[in-house]
Amino acid sequence: MADRKAQRTMRDIKEQFRLDRHREFLRAALDIVNADGLPSLTMPGLAEAVDCGIGTLYEHFRSKDALIEAVFRRRLDPI
After folding, report:
1. SS3 readout for the chain
2. What is the model's pLDDT at position 75?
3. Spatial separation of the C-alpha atoms in residues 71 and 40, rounded to whole Å
4. Which of 40, 57, 60, 68 could potentially form a cystine with 36 if both were Cys, beta carbons 3.0 to 4.6 Å apart?
5. Nearest to 76 by CA among 30, 17, 35
6. Is 32 in contact with 41 (CB distance < 8 Å)?
7. What is the pTM (predicted TM-score) of this model?
8. C-alpha dihedral over 48, 54, 57, 59, to 10 degrees?
């Protein structure tokens, strides 16, 4: 029983970390767009801005288009 509770807690912690990281990517992407315009938003540039590997970024967004869509959705409906 205790192991099961601990597993749920670890899953919850991992999911919260994933959601926090996703929000961080969206905030940073929006900052880039606000500062320099949409053409300046690149996947490698965003990965560098948030200090992560580009593979991590692609785990959250399958393409730049998906990232842009998420940024604009966030802009219309804040997280």
Report:
1. CHHHHHHHHHHHHHHHHHHHHHHHHHHHHHHHHHHHCHHHCCHHHHHHHCCCCHHHHHHHCCCHHHHHHHHHHHHHCCC
2. 73
3. 14
4. 40
5. 30
6. yes
7. 0.81
8. -170
